[in-house]
Amino acid sequence: MSADQALLQVAGLTKTYGRRVGCCDVSFDLFPGEVMGIVGESGSGKSTLLNCLAGHMPPDAGAVRFHMRDGTVRDTVRMSEPERRMLGRTDWAFVHQHAVDGLRMNVSAGGNVGERLMAVGARHYGDIRGAAVDWLGRVEIAEDRIDDRPRQFSGGMQQRLQIARNLVTGPRLVFMDEPTGGLDVSVQARLLDLLRGLVREMGLSAIIVTHDLAVVRLLADRLMVMKDGQVVETGLTDQVLDDPQHAYSQLLVSSVLQV
Amino acid sequence: MISVQDVAKRFVLHNQGSTVIPVMQGASLEVASGECVALVGASGAGKSTLMRMIYGNYTVASGSIRVGDVDVATAPPRDILALRRHSLGYVSQFLRVVPRVPTLDVVAEPLLAVGAGAEDARARAQRLLGQLNIPERLWSLSPTTFSGGEQQRVNIARGFAHAYPAMLLDEPTASLDETNRAVVLGLIADAKARGAAIIGIFHDTDARAAVCDREVDVSAFAPGVAA
Predict the structure, then answer these.
(1) In angstroms, rounded to a whole number, what is the distance separating the alpha carbons of residues B162 and B143?
(2) With contacts defined as CB-CB under 8 Å, which chain A residues touch B78?
(3) What per-residue confidence (pLDDT) applies to B227?
(4) What is the mean pLDDT of residues B60-76?
(5) Chain B residues in contact with A217 (beta carbon < 8 A)
């Protein structure tokens, strides 16, 4: 696939909850290797948007076109449920804010990573275990913890395990919902470093929802600012943060407490 | 290589009574390959603002800013990202990095981003850090804990790691001692010699005289001043 072709093309994506607007007429293109941040206050519609993009929630209108591995472009909104689920296990990954939502808590760490491989057809135990060890190493979880359950892990370790579980199948697009939320800052830094390395080495594209502007500055190439379900500003991350144009973006940036 | 034409800039403060602050008008300048041009003018005249617009960090109200074949004023984010990765370097006054990343990796990163091999990138980073007198025992540590001068030198090493055809330097010699200042001026001279087009802000007049071919006074671009 050429880098000139968009990996994801979103057009007119809209979701309402009765008379309330979740997200309204959102359109953008995401290219291979690009990381896009979505920021906005609670209730701005950023999580609704992410869930509609990732196929967790059906939008009321709009299209989410994905450039498939076979070269075709498919509207994932109109795919059959089994097809969309297959995509969710292969080319797509979703990192939840709370690791418990993305992990199986009563299965070992190695099992959590191996399960996704088995879901795409891996059957050889040695290979699966080997891949699990490799990925635990990449997210800095010691090999001797492979048989421990996630419940015995710290919050930061659980989040890293969730990332390993998601990336083991070599996805091309990762959706992340507040991936560093709820972690203390030293753990956040470690996770950011890890994510940046993975994005560069694997050529991943990612869409990251967060309300932490420092996180998007370090991680995202492009930024989308949402308010009341609408996209009020988009642009290069550093341009939106350093020279915000919309009243709400200006308020958001100027409200950050300095340390 | 860099061509700024009739650029205007204003800030609109929506949350402060929608105050409109015009800061620049009719800004034009040309920088050829192998040439270093200094932006001069009093504090607040708009030197950094102009530099930030050329980097795509600030939006442009009107006019065009061509770097190579990209018009930064109108290019989509994707083109500006590619331009920054391959063609347009920027040494800012402040180092902004992911905490915890070793200094060596911070410096090697721009090379990895353009597809250099890990070994080559590290070797180049080591050479630059050595040249800039960052002690080897610090290379494996994150620069976030370094002194201001050390951070600045790490920032310069990072900025010069890849041979960008166009470079923006915001006070690259400020707060450096004589020895390191000479090293940085050497790096700038080398970059010019290989054909880089450079725009710099230097408060240090000796440094400016040593590397710059000419000066552009940005005061002439102040709104309301006839050009």
Answers:
(1) 19
(2) 31, 34, 222
(3) 44
(4) 96
(5) 96
**Chain A residues near residue B98 by CB distance under 8 angstroms:** 189, 192-193, 196, 218
Q: What is the pTM of this model?
A: 0.90
The predicted structure's pLDDT at residue A258 = 66
pLDDT digits (tens, 9 = 90+) for A45-91: 999 999 999 999 999 999 999 999 999 999 999 999 999 999 998 89
CB B25 within 8 A of CB B178: no
Measured distance CA(A177)–CA(A48) in Å, rounded = 10
Distance CA A117, CA A94 (A): 15
Percentage of chain A beyond pLDDT 90 is 66
Among A207, A219, A259, smallest CA distance to A28 is for A207
Going by pLDDT thresholds of 50, 70 and 90, the confidence category of residue B225 is: low
Q: Which two tokens stand for residue B148?
A: 């201001």
CA dihedral sign of residues B42, B47, B48, B53: positive
Contacts of A199 (CB under 8 A, 6+ apart): A33, A35, A206, A219
Query: CB–CB of A243 and B52 under 8 A?
Result: yes
The interface residues of chain A toward chain B in range 3-32, judged by CB-CB distance below 8 A, are 31
Q: Establish if B43 touches chain A: CB-CB under 8 angstroms.
A: no
Residues A151, A186 contacting (CB under 8 angstroms): no
**pLDDT reported for residue B226:** 47
Comparing C-alpha atoms, which of B109, B174, B106 is closest to residue B140? B106
What is the widest separation between alpha-carbon atoms in chain B?
55
Tokens matching residue B127: 């050479």
Distance CA B27, CA B193 (A): 27
Q: What digits encode the pLDDT tens for the residues B191-224? A: 999 999 999 999 999 999 999 999 999 999 998 7
d(C-alpha B93, C-alpha B90), whole Å? 10
Chain A touched by B122 (CB under 8 Å): no
Residue B15 to residue A250, Cβ atoms within 8 A: yes
Out of B11, B78, B98, closest to residue A196 by CB: B98
Query: Is the predicted pLDDT of residue A189 greater than 80, yes or no?
Result: no
Q: Number of CB pairs < 8 Å for A and B?
A: 58
Contact B78 A31 (CB under 8 A): yes
Handedness of CA B54, B174, B181, B122 (dihedral sign): negative
| Overall average pLDDT of the A220-242 stretch | 95
- Mean of the per-residue pLDDT values of chain A: 90
d(CA A225, CA A233): 5
Is B99 part of the contact surface with chain A (CB cutoff 8 Å)?
Answer: yes
- CA B172 to CA B97: how far, in whole Å? 18
- Cα–Cα distance between B47 and B202 in angstroms, integer? 10
DSSP label of A216: H
